[in-house]
Each structure stands twice: as structure tokens, then as C-alpha cells.
């Protein structure tokens, strides 16, 4: 077994790993970046906007269950992090609103991760692709590096600091069932396929704490009966669901759909068979199903895309026609039509239950566009506990010497709420690089 020694060993070369590697390497640290995949980038390659909440008040309002110290670090670190992106030559657009409550920037992630790789190799760092991490080297409670294996053999990489950045466990059905919901075993994956919980396994080996149970996940609604491919991740995500009504198999609404598609996605996972009927009218089709989700993004016709891919879709020329939904779908169309009528009367009176705080408009302009929908997962909110400096905490809340984590491997920032996966990875990866620098100089 060959051996070498670096300042910072990073396991996972997506948004968090690439960021930490580039920051540390350009600061003079010796870096080794390891990934099981044959390329750097992970899920970051699919993403297009780096954004989060604009301030602490909005963060508290939208994400009251998130860890206070991590939430503060994210908000306080965001603008400097974006400045850093620009400083290394990343392509970051001007500030713009994101969703109903966020702010951020268009961001070319593909250019960024390739740029990070160049920064690392240009500084003499190593990028080891197609490489598994067998185990951490742990001595007397401190992490001293890891044993990695590739086609060229197994070797020990000793490191002053080791950063876990493998992007979560969403690609593993068993862990989804255990940590998200039993129904999550069978849901579609909307992320890179390699985030199988490797970071969690390694962190557990070093005695890390995990949390929070019940935190949920980031994902979107997609049409049912479709196997997602990479090309579908954005095209088939039914972002417009905020403006439509969603009915479960009991023909009932069960959540305020208007708050956010990603929140409705978590709620649907917990409904019978984790599927529901999403119904919009001609207004919703015109104003939302065929328009961009975020300013500047592509705007495919969601109904046409779902239909082309063989999803369960239909157009009802009137509410009465909903009675002719295919029987095998399992819904009572007449009951749903009655619910829509009752909802229209309730919004006129201002007392819809569940309410629709952000879009209290009736669905009364035929035709009606029907898509059966299911949740798809992008990354979990349950993960490795860290502090503001990205140090991994043990079960008692004490830092584990030498071990850091960032990005979707970590938990605590988001609790049944979401304000940017890239920003979370970016800010805590920069914190990890700063911590590694301190450890290397001490
Ligand atoms: C379609 C899509 C669109 C998105 N859009 C946005 C957006 O616009 N804005 C936003 O903020 N967020 C967005 N996200 C989320 C964002 O991409 C993630 O939050 C972010 O990439 C997380 O960074 P990460 O480094 O934790 O994980 P990743 O970027 O996924 O990187 C994890 C890396 O770890 C590697 N890996 C996995 N297991 C191991 C192992 N055992 N050993 C070594 N390496 C391993 C993987 O191969 C991967 O390269 C989107 C995600 C998707 C899928």
C-alpha cells in the first residue's frame, strides 16, 4: 500500500468538494480531491442558480426548524462566497429574485467545477477520479486521513483535515426508506446517481452525530409512471404546482400547495401511495405551466412534456368531465370536481381549507389540465452534524478532530424548508477550507 500526506483530503468532488479544494489549493494548501465518479461535478452540474434567503428574518420565517448557528452562517457568508466565486473567474449573473422569498444569481456550475479542477491541479494538487474511500484512518478519536482504492491499487492518504462531501444518500433506496419515509424507497431520483451515503458511512465510523430526524428532503413533483433521466430533471419538474390544486387518492386536498412545490413534494410523500392528481385550469396553463419557474430559465410546456413522455395526463373540457378519469388511476373524478367547486366557493369567501396563502384564486377557467404526480428526491436534509466552521460533531456535540463535512452530506441547516443547495455547499465548503488552513498552520 502506497502512502502520501496532504493538508486537506476531500472525499466527493461536487459543489462542496470542488469549492473547498479550489479555495484551499489557491491558499497554498496541499489538496487531494477524491471521487467515485469518472468526472468532477456531481449534482452541481445540473444546477443553475446560487441563491438563499435574503436575510435572517426571512430565514427564520421560512425555515424555523433549522439550526440557528448554521442558518446565520449561511446568510452571513453568502455575499462573500459569491464574491469569491467571481474572484476565481466563475460566471455569476447579477442579483435577482428566486422563488417568492429568495435572492441569488444565475451561475454556470459546469464552468465552475471544471475551473476548480484546473485551480487544484494547477497548484500541484491531486484529483483522483474513479476512486472509492474504503475507510477513514482514525486514531484515538482523531481522523488522520483515509484509505482509498482505485484501479491502480489501494493507498493510504494521510491528511491534517479530511472533508466529507459526497452529496447525501438519496441514490440509496434503503436509506431513503429509513431516513425519509417508507414510501421513499420507490420514488424517482433527481440527482447524480453516486450519492449513496458514503459520507455518512465514513462519518459514522468516526463517531459522528446525525440529525435531524424528520427534516425531510429537497425535491420536486414529477409526472407519475416516468423513469427520470438526467435530461428530465428540469423539464419534467412540475414547479407550477404552486398554482394548481393537488388531490390525494381520497380525493382531498391536504396541503397549501401555493407555498412551494418542494414543500408539497414532501407532503405528498406521506400521502397514500405517495401519488396525487395535480389539476390546473386554463389560467394556470397560460400563466404558469408554460412559463419560466425562475426568471431567465427555460420554459417548456409542462403538460406537453409529461404527455410526450407517457405520463398519466388528460384535459377535461369542464369540471363535469373529470368524472371520466380512467378508473385504473384510482381517483373519484366526480368527487374531485365537487371539491374544486367547494374550493372555488371557499376562496371567494376567504376560508379555503387548507388555505392557499400565496395564490388564493379559483380554478374556474376551463379546460382543466390533469397530471398524476409523484415526488422525486434531489437530496436529504438529514445528515452529519457540523458546526459553523464545518467541523463534524460527535453525538455529544463535540468536534471530531480532523474531520469536516459540507454540502448535502450534512444536516441541520434545513428542516422541512429549502433555500438553496448550492449556497449551502458553497458557504460551508469555504468554511471547511478556512478550518483546514487553521489546522495546517497550527
Ligand atoms: C436537477 C438539479 C437542479 C438543481 N438546481 C439547483 C439550483 O438551481 N440551485 C441550487 O442551489 N441547488 C440546485 N440543485 C442542488 C445542488 O446541485 C446540490 O445541492 C449541490 O450540488 C450539493 O453539493 P454537494 O457537493 O453536497 O453534492 P454534489 O454536488 O452532488 O457532489 C457530490 C459528489 O460526491 C461524489 N461521491 C458520492 N459518493 C462518494 C464516495 N463514497 N466517495 C467519493 N465521492 C463520492 C459524487 O460522485 C459527486 O461528485 C440542483 C440539483 C439537481 C439534481
Write the layout of secondary structure elements.
Blueprint: E1 2-11, H1 15-26, E2 31-34, E3 49-52, H2 56-62, H3 68-87, E4 92-98, E5 102-107, H4 109-122, E6 126-128, E7 132-139, E8 142-150, E9 153-164, H5 173-179, E10 188-189, H6 198-205, E11 210-211, E12 217-223, H7 232-235, E13 245-247, H8 261-269, E14 276-280, H9 282-289, H10 302-308, E15 313-316, H11 333-349, E16 368-380, E17 383-385, E18 391-393, E19 399-405, E20 410-411, H12 421-441
Parallel strand pairs: 1-2, 1-9, 2-6, 9-19, 10-16, 17-20
Antiparallel strand pairs: 3-5, 4-5, 7-8, 8-9, 11-17, 12-16, 13-14, 14-16, 15-16, 18-19
Helix pairs in contact: 1-4, 1-12, 3-12
Bound molecules: flavin-adenine dinucleotide.
Polypeptide structure, described:
- With 442 residues, this protein is α/β, with parallel strands linked by helices.
- The protein has 2 domains: 2-214 and 381-441, 3-Layer(bba) Sandwich (FAD/NAD(P)-binding domain); 219-376, Flavocytochrome C3, Chain A, domain 1, CATH 3.90.700.
- The protein has 12 helices and 20 strands.
- The strands form 4 sheets. Strands 1, 2, 6, 7, 8, 9, 18 and 19 form an 8-stranded mixed sheet that branches. Strands 10, 12, 13, 14, 15 and 16 form a 6-stranded mixed sheet that branches. The chain has a 3-stranded antiparallel sheet with strand order 3-5-4.
- The longest helix has 21 residues, at 421-441.
- The radius of gyration is 23 Å and the shape is elongated.
- Residues 11-17, 34-37, 41-44, 46-50, 133, 165-167, 190-192, 194-196, 198, 233-234, 378-379, 407-408, 420-423, 425 line the site of flavin-adenine dinucleotide (FAD).
- Residues 11-17, 34-37, 41-44, 46-50, 133, 165-167, 190-192, 194-196, 198, 233-234, 378-379, 407-408, 420-423, 425 line the site of flavin-adenine dinucleotide.
Amino acid at each position: 500500500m502506497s502512502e502520501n500526506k496532504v493538508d486537506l483530503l476531500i472525499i466527493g468532488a461536487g459543489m462542496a468538494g470542488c469549492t473547498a479544494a479550489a479555495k484551499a489549493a489557491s491558499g497554498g494548501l496541499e489538496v487531494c480531491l477524491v471521487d467515485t465518479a469518472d468526472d468532477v461535478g456531481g449534482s452541481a452540474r445540473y444546477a443553475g442558480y446560487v441563491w438563499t434567503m435574503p436575510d435572517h428574518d426571512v430565514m427564520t420565517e421560512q425555515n424555523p426548524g433549522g439550526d440557528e448557528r448554521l442558518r446565520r452562517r449561511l446568510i452571513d457568508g453568502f455575499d462573500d462566497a459569491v464574491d469569491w466565486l467571481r474572484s476565481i473567474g466563475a460566471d455569476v449573473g447579477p442579483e435577482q429574485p428566486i422563488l417568492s422569498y429568495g435572492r441569488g444569481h444565475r451561475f454556470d456550475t459546469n464552468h465552475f467545477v471544471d475551473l476548480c479542477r484546473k485551480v487544484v491541479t494547477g497548484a500541484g494538487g491531486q484529483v483522483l477520479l474513479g476512486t472509492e474511500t474504503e475507510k477513514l484512518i482514525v486514531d484515538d478519536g482523531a481522523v488522520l486521513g483515509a484509505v482509498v482504492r482505485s484501479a491502480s491499487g489501494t493507498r493510504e492518504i494521510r491528511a491534517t483535515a479530511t472533508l466529507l462531501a459526497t452529496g447525501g444518500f438519496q441514490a440509496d433506496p434503503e436509506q431513503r426508506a429509513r431516513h425519509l419515509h417508507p414510501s421513499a424507497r420507490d420514488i424517482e431520483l433527481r440527482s447524480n446517481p453516486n450519492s449513496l451515503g458514503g459520507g455518512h458511512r465514513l462519518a459514522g465510523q468516526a463517531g459522528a452525530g446525525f440529525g435531524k430526524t424528520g427534516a425531510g428532503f429537497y425535491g420536486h413533483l414529477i409526472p407519475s409512471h416516468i423513469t427520470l433521466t438526467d435530461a428530465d430533471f428540469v423539464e419534467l419538474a412540475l414547479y407550477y404546482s404552486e398554482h394548481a390544486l393537488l388531490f390525494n387518492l381520497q380525493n382531498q386536498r391536504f396541503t397549501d400547495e401555493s407555498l412551494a412545490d418542494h414543500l408539497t413534494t414532501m407532503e405528498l410523500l406521506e400521502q397514500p401511495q405517495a401519488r396525487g392528481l395535480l389539476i390546473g385550469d386554463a389560467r394556470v396553463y397560460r400563466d404558469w405551466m408554460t412559463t419560466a419557474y425562475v426568471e431567465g430559465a427555460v420554459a417548456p410546456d409542462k403538460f406537453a412534456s409529461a404527455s410526450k413522455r407517457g405520463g398519466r395526463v388528460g384535459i377535461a373540457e369542464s369540471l363535469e368531465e373529470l368524472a371520466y378519469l380512467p378508473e385504473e388511476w384510482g381517483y373519484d373524478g366526480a368527487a374531485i370536481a365537487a371539491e374544486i367547486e367547494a374550493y372555488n366557493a371557499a376562496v371567494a369567501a376567504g376560508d379555503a381549507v387548507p388555505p392557499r396563502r400565496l395564490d388564493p384564486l379559483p380554478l374556474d377557467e376551463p379546460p382543466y389540465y390533469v397530471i398524476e404526480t409523484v415526488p422525486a428526491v434531489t437530496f436529504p436534509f438529514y445528515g452529519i452534524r457540523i458546526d459553523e466552521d464545518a467541523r463534524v460533531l460527535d453525538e455529544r456535540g463535540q468536534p471530531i478532530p480532523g474531520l469536516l463535512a459540507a454540502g448535502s452530506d450534512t444536516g441541520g441547516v434545513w428542516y422541512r424548508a429549502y433555500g438553496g443547495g448550492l449556497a449551502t455547499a458553497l458557504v460551508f465548503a469555504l468554511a471547511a477550507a478556512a478550518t483546514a488552513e487553521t489546522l495546517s498552520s497550527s
